[in-house]
What we know:
Number of domains: 1
Oligomer: single chain
Strand content: 5-15%
Pfam family, one: Zn_peptidase_2
Transmembrane segments: 6-22, 143-166, 193-219
Number of strands: 3
Protein name: Zinc metallopeptidase
InterPro entries: Zn_peptidase_2
Strand order of the largest sheet: 1-3-2
Organism: Psychrobacillus vulpis
Radius of gyration: 21 Å
Amino acid sequence: MISYIVYFAIILLLPIYAQMKVKSTYKKYTKVRSTSGMSGAQVARTILDANGLSDVKVVESSGFLSDHYNPMTKIVALSSHNYHEASVAGAAIAAHEVGHAIQHKEAYSFLTLRHKLVPIANISSNASWIFIMIGMLATFPSFMLLGIVLLAVGVVFQIVTLPVEFNASNRAMDQMVSLGIIRNEEEPHAKKVLSAAALTYVAAAAVAVLELLRLVLIYTGMTRDE
């Protein structure tokens, strides 16, 4: 009983902590103006052009921290504050999204794998719970196993996402430093923003792995009782 309480506390609290960490870190460093005085849009454009990516557009997107890179349309979308304002947080996030564009240009292996997994993971993750619930409620181990296998595809997607995000952040730091977008004293601040953002992906992967392990234990219990 206690182990279940601890388990559910982890899968509930870890994502909440990650989101709170992102918001608090972002809020703190949006108030720190970058010495370059460049807005997020200017940062993105500068790094893109320096890497021969003049065909990638930078646009403003609505929503809080809605920043992303779309490889299909070759668009770096930045949330309004990051797009217009000159802050360390905005520069770091803009550079991170451009990091994905550079990965795309170079056919970074983990990014390529993640793109291939997207449609498969979406379908398998949704379908998995149908089989899992049937297997648990009707005590059909074979259905349970099929659901676990389908869910595992989604877990693999979450794990593959981690090196993609970490690599994009490393590229972001290298680009910002080499192009003089941030100075030495600003580097620790930018790293904190990127690390906080990465924590959300780590939390999602950890929760996915824990849930998969829990279901595997339930399945082994079912087969042992047969």
